Sequence to fold (590 residues):
Amino acid sequence: MESSLLISSSRPLKPFLPHSPRRHVSLRSRPPPPLRRLPFSSSSSSSRTAPSLPSSKFVVTRAAARELFDGGSHSRDRPPGVGRGGARRRDEYRVEQGEPAGPPPPVVAAVRGVAPYVVPAAARTVLWRVVQNFLPGKTKDPSSGESTSSGIMWSFAAGSNLSTSKSFNAEKESRRNLNKFYKELRTLKNVNMAGRQFGDEGLFFLAESLAYNKSAEEVDFSGNAITAVGIEAFDGILQINTALKSLNLSGNAIGDEGAKCLSDILVENVGIQKLLLNSTNIGDEGAKAISDMLKKNKTIRTLQLSNNTIEYSGFASIAEALLENNELHLHGNGFGNEGVRALMSALCAHKGKITVLDIGNNNITSEGSLHVAEFIKMTRSLLWLSLYMNDISDEGAEKVADALKENKTISTVDLGGNNIHSKGVSAIAETLKDNSVVTTLELSYNPIGPDGVKALCDVLKFNGKVRTLKLGWCQIGVSGAEFVADCLKYNTTLSTLDLRANGLGDDGAICLARSFKIINESLTSLDLGFNEIRDDGAFALAQALKANEDLAVTSLNLANNFFTKFGQVALSEARDHVYEMSEKEIDIYF
Fold:
């Protein structure tokens, strides 16, 4: 059976029959084995003509392949000893001089491994044994014991070995953007680079522009894939920068190591007053490092650490250091009742001058609200308190309400999303009778119902100083809207009222429209979005606006209701009418 070498080609090639090679005799040369002719097809067994071959196959006899791979074949116009033969003669000379022969070229060595495996010319399949020689083998690294690839790396994807212009253009664009950011840092006062994803390397490039910088006062580097390694770029930069007042690194996973590195740097900074580290994967260790920094740094007034993984031990450390700092944002850390106990105890013991405290979304229940109430009674500096999205329930609301009776500083209270019902709201309403400090009350996302809003409106008719009241998603219904409408006839302090998503419908809108016909000089913003109001309610509101040209409302939100174009046209005409008669603009949102 005669043999041949079958090599697939990506495009059709002409059949090639080797010529008789010119032999070059050397000390190592051996006479080639006798050539055997290729088998002819059965249909032309008596013919001496070479068999027909597929156009996409390249056939070489074993002898010719050996001559080709061994470097012994030459072109017809190349004399012996020139080109590939010269390389073999140099190897023979080295052997005669007692030196080892040079290694064959990599491609030759690879192809030699394939040469012995030959398949018939008519075969249509490639034997795995042949393919296996093209795949890189694996050897064990004696030092590490791990398998490593050896041999030639082969790529079978079209164009995979070519450098793509797409990656080059992306790199070029990245450099251009970094240069642009660098210029902004050197020239602008407020620089927003949030979400640019320039990473640690980009920060090392940009941080240099902050050295001796006298222009940039607020810099936002949030959401840029910066890690603890990138924080080191600020070393030697922030120590000498005195112009930067606000630094935002939120949304970068710097972790505890990054917090420690940044704290060491900020000890010597005398310019930054606001530091934002929300959602940065900081835990207790990082919080303790920040605490140590705050004891030495006297300029940072606002610290935001929301949505991290700090527990009560970390918060206790921070609270101990907050003697001169004004704002503390700890939203979304989930430290629970134990965490809030430690935090409040530390704040009470050290009497820090806290003006803003955000402990929302931290799994605080009625048990934890007791510690908050104790701090409310004691503080003489707190102006803004948020317990948003905890679960203090009616019991916790009653404790907070009792504490507010003794507090004379807190003007904003956010109790939204705390599972408070009518009982808890009634306690808060009683507090507002004698409290003239609270001006903003957030109760959204609590199922207070019609009874709860009635208790609140009965007090706000003639008492309290509340200017902003938010009751969205409170299930007050149409009857609740009637209590609100009645309150608006007498109240002289409310300027912003949020009643979104309370199922008011057309009847509720009509009730509120009636209150518009009475002059209310305080209410400027009313939000009725998500209330299933249709055209009838829109017509009633439009008529009320036309009838009372002296109405103080300048913003009316009716988005996400069920108006048709008729209701929208009626409201638009009412808006235009008010402007024509009084030159007062009303913003109406559909």
User: Anything to note?
Assistant: The longest strand covers residues 4-8. The chain is about 40% helix and 10% strand.
